[in-house]
Structure formats: structure tokens, C-alpha cells
Amino acid sequence: MNSSRSSTFRTILLPAILILLLALELRLLGMMRLPLFIDEALHLSRTHAMLGGDLYVGSIRKWLYPVTLIPFQPLGLEGPWLARAVSTIEGVLGTAIVIGLGSALYSRRAGLLAGLIYAVLPLAVFHERQALADPLLAALTALSLLLIVWQSRRPHLGISLLIGGALAAACLIKISAVLFLAMPIAGLLIWPGGRTDRWQRITLNLLSIVLALALIALAYRAYLTNNRLTDTPAEAVIGNLITLSGAEQPDSATRLRNDFTVAGEVALRYIGLPLMVLAISSLVWIIRGMHHRRFIYLVMPALAFIAPALLAKSPSDYFSPRYLMVNAAPLVALA
Q: What is the pLDDT of residue 41?
């Protein structure tokens, strides 16, 4: 027994701890060398207003992230450092979730390799040391993917509640996460399970989505009530989705073409050609019929969910690298 525990520690726990320490060190290095970015300043400003009693200040589409900073009281000159330190911890948490995701989908060794890639991924290292909403968003969406895999193998009400909470939190951090609400259904279709527990699986997966929508609606209702607006939660959500789609934006085809070009440049610089080649080479496995369920499950958030970032309203020729953060975890697990 002791020999088995020692082997597990050496081959699994110790490498995982070292990978997480590497992720922490890379994100801490030069954390305060970057100047304060305008979005970081806005998040801190909203946190200050919330600490002053105005909990529903700012846009509901990016409401929850400043709330998560409240317990750390980033009020003084140390505010940016505290907020960035929290972001760093969220990045390490994201690395741990990637290790779990790779382990759950394939093997513990694959999980460790995926975590190592994520720990040194330039896209993650750069942005997870800034006080932005994207690192926490990426961690929550990756967590929902991991929980859905667990749910597919051993359905449980507690996991269903965690999925709903993670999805709701992600959508309240950024409305672009709304597409992840489809992932419980995707998981159900990809891993249908046996006939004996089919209805249990369907019920629990639908419960996750219903819970997420209910939490989002409650947050929107509270926001609208406190801001004395007349829209219903559904109207507010629909309005935000119309804004997200870039409706009525002039010359949207040209802007979209430009954004795809910039997105490609961003991917080459912040993700790197080797990782992109690894991910694309996964097509070989699906063509051969191997691991196709795992491939399909990861390729949806890794590729398809970049659409909101590309379609959202933004100035022409502008595409921020952090828009790709939500794709980072499934991309490295896919590779």
C-alpha cells in the first residue's frame, strides 16, 4: 500500500504540483511591470463603487468580475497589485482544471502534459497576470467542461448544481459565454450513457441549464430593479445578445474579414505554431475513428466559441488577444 501511494505521488501528484508552481512563477514574474490597462482601471473603479454601496454599477454584461474582487478590498495604492494577484491565482486554478480535463478525457499523463502546455502558454501567461475578467471566465468555462465529463460518467445532482453555477457565473462575467449553455446538451449527445440511467442524465443536464438561466435572470432582475429600468430580464438578455451580434454595424463584412486576419496573427503570436499544429493534427485521429467523441467535445469550445468575439461590436481592425482566452483550455487539452 505504501509503495502504491509513493508511486502515485511521484508519477502524478508531484508533477502536478511542479506544473502548478511553474504556472504561478511565470504569472508572478513581471506582474507589475505592465502599465495599468484601461479595462483593469474600470474593473477597480467598479469594485470601489460596489464597496461604497452601489452593487449594480456598470454594465450587467460584465457585472460579476468586480464583485469577486470585493473580499480583497483593493482600495488603496496596492489595489492593482491585489487584483493582479487574484488573477494570477485564477490562472493557476485554470491550469489545475486543464490537468483535470485532460486526465478525465484521456489519461493522467495526458492531463499533466495539457497542464504543462497551459502553464507556459503565452496567451495565458500574459493575460492571467492582469486584473481582467478573462482569466476567471476561462477558468469557469473550463470547469464547466470538466464537470460535464464527470456528469456523463457518474450522474449526480451535486455536479449538476455546480455546472449550473459555473455557467451562470461565466455568463455574468461576460455575456459571450452564453454559448457554453449548450455544452451540457452537447455532453449528453456525445456521451449518451446506458438505457438504465438515460432519463436521469437528461434531467440532470437540463437542470444545469435551467439553474444557470434562473441565476442569470435573477441577477438581471436585481440589476434592472436597482437601476430603475423597465426591461424584463428576458428583454435585457435579448438586447445584450443583439449588441453582441454586431447588429446595425456598418460594413460588418469588412470588419469581420479584418478581425479574422488579426485573430490569426494573435493566434500565431500568443498561442504559437507548434500548439496550433498539434491541435490541427488531431484531425488525423478523428479521420481514423479514434477518440472521436473526445475530439468533438473539445473542438466545439476550442473553435466554434470564438464566434462571439469575432461578431461582437468593436472598432474596425481591432481584435484583442484576450478574446481568445475562453478557447485556451479546450485548445491545449485537444492538442
A: 92
Buried b (16+ CB within 10 A) or exposed e, 251-262: ebeebeeebeeb
pTM: 0.86
Q: Is 312 helix (H, G, I), strand (E, B) or coil?
A: coil
What pLDDT digit, counting tens, does each position of 3-22 carry? 666 677 777 889 999 999 99
Residue 68 buriedness (CB in 10 A; 0-12 / 13-18 / 19+): middle
In this prediction, the residues of the chain whose per-residue pLDDT falls under 70 are: 1-6, 194, 228-256, 286-287, 289-290, 311-318
Q: What's the CA gap between 24 and 119, in Å, rounded?
A: 8
CA dist list (Å): 40 to 23, 124, 133:
21, 16, 9
CA distance 94 to 23: 10
Question: What is residue 226's predicted lDDT score, i.e. its pLDDT?
Answer: 82
- Among residues 264, 252, 241, 245, the alpha carbon closest in space to that of 319 is found at 264
Please provide residue 133's backbone torsions phi and psi, each rounded to the nearest 5 degrees. Answer: -75, -20
For residue 186, which of 243, 145, 222 has the smallest C-alpha distance? 145
Residue 152 vs residues 102, 146, 187, 189, 245: alpha-carbon distances, Å: 15, 10, 7, 10, 32
